[in-house]
């Protein structure tokens, strides 16, 4: 069994197991589990068999439908996720919904489930229901977990023994969970189920309804389908153009009418590159530069690019739109972090020094000065900045001795200077010829 199949099996088994005893403590345990578990968003084929016999009645049949919706609250129903079928059974079995044959999202399921009504009630032909489920599974995807949820308030009294039909499906890997309400034949229920641990009970429909209501809770949507057409969201606002061929509808230009795949409700959702908790007209905002949003979902903000990265435009839709800022190198699209560019470390010049600290990262600036008696060969080299290409501006600072300009000997006099170039500290002495004085 692959990982997804195993997860689906464990979730269904655990959920129904916890429902086998319906006191408040057990119900709270179910609630705690649902609030602290990440429900599988993978693939499964799920068939519900709803008892439509005369003892059920119209009101309790609606509770069965409510259980289907509540049970699916935490499971994504969509073309490439879990696919659902609903069959009711009495004297015969009737297939009402079959998303294995015609895959659809949960929004369609919610609509079509409302059309399933209590009619033509009579005996309990469980065998016919299981046979119909077998026909549904002919359209099942390969290597996908197949599950039956059987709900009944009694025991089979028409159509022969249903157990052999159930055995055939179980031999093909179908998991069967049998749920008995009120007075039912326990041995038959356990024989239909994959194992006795897959057979569960509820004392009456009042308790059954309470369990369904607790299971449902208030799920947080994690997935939306953008395949819904605009008219499905027309009820979300009062448009003055309703009915007009050019009616812009209720959704923002950057939103889509979408199906919430957990609740099954249609709503306007801001599309990729745009954020907002509401997708109604005027409520979607473009992701600022340096952020992106890749999914169709309502959010308060967009996802920031990795540190040191930004985007070229507004309304970016992928991390692939992020690139490293000037002074950084890396590749966010390949998950290579943007790292600050570094220039080679600078050394103090001979007969000189660095003023203050001198970092070697992009944007850092270093200052140089020469010791007394020395000067820079090029005064422009007193400042160097680390650029985005990893190189320093200007040239290496070089200090040289300060050389004084040559002095002219005085007219009618003499000049005697220390030997060599006239560097700082050297002296020149002047004297006048006989008959002349220094002025």
From TrEMBL:
Residue ranges annotated for the Sushi domain, each copy included: 341-401
**Residues in coiled coil:** none
Instruction: Report the domain of life of the source organism.
Output: Eukaryota
- VWFA domain: from which residue to which, for each copy? 45-215
Cellular component terms (Gene Ontology): protein-containing complex
Q: Tell me, what's a Pfam family for it? A: Ephrin_rec_like
Looking at the keywords, is Disulfide bond present? yes
Q: Which residues form the signal peptide?
A: 1-22
List the Gene3D superfamilies.
Complement Module, domain 1 (2.10.70.10), Tumor Necrosis Factor Receptor, subunit A, domain 2 (2.10.50.10), von Willebrand factor, type A domain (3.40.50.410)
UniProtKB keywords: Disulfide bond, Signal, Sushi
Q: Does the keyword field hold GTP-binding?
A: no
Cross-referenced SUPFAM superfamilies: Complement control module/SCR domain, Growth factor receptor domain, vWA-like
Cysteines paired by S-S bonds: 343-386
SMART domains from the entry? CCP, Ephrin_rec_like, VWA
What InterPro entries does the entry give?
A: ECM_Assembly_Org, Growth_fac_rcpt_cys_sf, Sushi/SCR/CCP_sf, Sushi_SCR_CCP_dom, Tyr-kin_ephrin_A/B_rcpt-like, VWF_A, vWFA_dom_sf
PANTHER family registered for this protein in UniProt: COLLAGEN ALPHA, PH DOMAIN-CONTAINING PROTEIN
Q: Know the name of this protein?
A: Sushi, von Willebrand factor type A, EGF and pentraxin domain-containing protein 1
Which lineage is the organism of this entry classified under, starting from the top rank? Eukaryota, Metazoa, Ecdysozoa, Arthropoda, Chelicerata
């Amino acid at each position: 069994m692959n990982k997804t199949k195993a997860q689906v099996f464990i979730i269904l088994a655990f959920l129904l197991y916890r429902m086998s005893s319906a006191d408040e403590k057990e119900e709270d345990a179910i609630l705690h589990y649902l609030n602290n578990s990440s429900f599988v968003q993978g693939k499964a084929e799920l068939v519900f068999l709803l008892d439509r016999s005369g003892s059920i009645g119209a009101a309790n049949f609606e509770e069965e439908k409510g259980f289907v919706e509540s049970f699916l609250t935490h499971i994504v129903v969509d073309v490439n996720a879990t696919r659902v079928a609903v069959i009711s059974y009495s004297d015969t079995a009737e297939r009402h919904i079959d998303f294995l044959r015609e895959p659809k999202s949960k929004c369609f399921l919610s609509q079509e489930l409302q059309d399933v009504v209590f009619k033509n009630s009579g005996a309990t032909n469980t065998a016919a229901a299981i046979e119909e489920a077998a026909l549904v599974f002919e359209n099942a995807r390969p290597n996908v977990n197949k599950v039956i949820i059987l709900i009944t308030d009694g025991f089979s009294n028409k159509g022969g023994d249903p157990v052999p039909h159930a055995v055939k499906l179980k031999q093909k890997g179908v998991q069967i969970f049998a749920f008995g309400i009120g007075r039912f034949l326990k041995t038959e229920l356990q024989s239909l189920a994959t194992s006795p641990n897959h057979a569960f009970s509820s004392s009456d429909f009042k308790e059954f309804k309470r369990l369904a209501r607790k299971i449902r809770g208030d799920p947080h949507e994690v997935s939306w389908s953008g395949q819904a057409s605009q008219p499905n969201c027309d009820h979300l606002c009062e448009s003055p153009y309703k009915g007009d061929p050019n009616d812009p509808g209720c959704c923002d230009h950057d939103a889509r009418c979408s199906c919430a795949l957990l609740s099954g409700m249609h709503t306007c959702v801001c599309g990729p590159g745009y954020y907002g908790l509401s997708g109604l007209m005027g409520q979607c905002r473009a992701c600022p530069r340096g952020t992106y949003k890749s999914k169709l979902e309502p959010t308060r903000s967009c996802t920031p690019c990795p540190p040191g990265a930004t985007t070229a435009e507004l309304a970016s839709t992928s991390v692939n739109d992020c690139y490293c800022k000037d002074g950084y190198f890396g590749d966010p699209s390949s998950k290579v972090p943007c790292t600050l560019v570094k220039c080679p470390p600078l050394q103090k010049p001979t007969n000189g020094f660095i003023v203050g600290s001198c970092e070697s990262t992009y944007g850092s600036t270093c200052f140089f000065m020469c010791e007394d008696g020395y000067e820079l060969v090029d005064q422009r080299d007193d400042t160097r900045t680390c650029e985005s290409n990893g190189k320093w501006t200007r040239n290496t600072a070089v200090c040289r001795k300060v050389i004084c300009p040559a002095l002219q000997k005085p007219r009618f006099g003499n000049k005697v200077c220390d030997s060599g170039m006239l560097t700082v500290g050297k002296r020149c002495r002047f004297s006048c010829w006989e008959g002349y004085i220094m002025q």
